[in-house]
Amino acid sequence: MLPLVALWAHGSLALGDFVPGRSDLDLVALIGAPIAGPQRRDLQRVHEGLISEQPLARNLHCAYVVSSDVADARRSHVTWAQGELYERPVSPVSRRELCQGGLCLRGPAPAAVVPAVTDAELAEYVRVNLRNYWHPKTSRSDIWLRDIWVDLGMLTLARATVTLRDGRLITKREAIEELARLGAPADVLDDIYRRRYEAAVSASVLWLARRGYLARSFIRAGIERVLASDAR
């Protein structure tokens, strides 16, 4: 058993845009000691068991942060996400969410433990993420046939635009509204909205290809515009 110090929720649940069965459940578990080899294997089995018993557990993401390492924003932590266990840092975006509106499910509130993220730190992370991760991804065509890439890419662009412009974080619903203001393809926005907030519908191969092309073209141009504007 892991020595649990605190359990926090961030993301859609904390920001008030959680859609049961569709939104990810983003958690941070603050633990008192590092996860040893046998504990890591047990943790893997626990998460896999949850998925086999409860399909909605596929949307569960949880970072296991050792309390002595919480101040180091560059430190990677054992994380369960997308059906696998690996290590990654808790991003400045997630840290800002935790400090500003994180839900405390157990233990001390996140704002009392997690160091505040400055506006400069948040903006720099967003710039680097757009430039080094998302922009190169728009050169590929295969990944944009998948819902997750279209959704995350489009919403990330909108949220990054607002963060760099206004210094604040927005929900996914607000991001869809921002994309409309930015002139995003209406049929792509409608597709994203229906799959997130209404009944999902089947899509033809032709539509998936067209949607992928429209999304990645818009995202690539949007990233270049945002970074150029932010640099002035």
Provide a descriptive summary of the structure in words:
It is a single chain. With 232 residues, the chain is an alpha+beta fold. The chain has 2 domains: 4-115, no CATH class; 120-231. The protein has 8 helices and 6 strands. It has a 6-stranded mixed sheet. Helix 4 runs antiparallel to helix 5 (147-166), helix 4 (119-137) packs across helix 8 and helix 5 (147-166) packs parallel to helix 8 (205-231).
Put the structure in a nutshell:
The protein is 51% helix and 16% strand. It has eight helices and six strands.
Keywords:
8 helices; 51% helix; 6-stranded mixed sheet; 2 domains; 232 residues; alpha+beta; 6 strands; 16% strand
Task: Give the topology.
Layout: E1 4-10, H1 12-15, E2 25-31, H2 37-53, E3 60-66, E4 76-81, E5 84-89, H3 92-101, E6 103-106, H4 119-137, H5 147-166, H6 172-181, H7 186-197, H8 205-231
Parallel strand pairs: 2-3
Antiparallel strand pairs: 1-2, 1-6, 3-4, 4-5
Distance linking N and C termini? 52 Å
Major pleated sheet: 6 strands, mixed
Would you identify the regions where 5 or more consecutive residues have pLDDT less than 50? Answer: none
Order of helices and strands: EHEHEEEHEHHHHH
How many beta-strand elements?
6
Residues in helix, %: 40-55%
Structural class: alpha+beta
Q: Rg, please? A: 18 Å
- Structural domain tally: 2
Strand content: 15-25%
SS summary, helix count: 8
Strand order of the largest sheet: 5-4-3-2-1-6
Shape: globular
Average of the residue pLDDT scores: 92
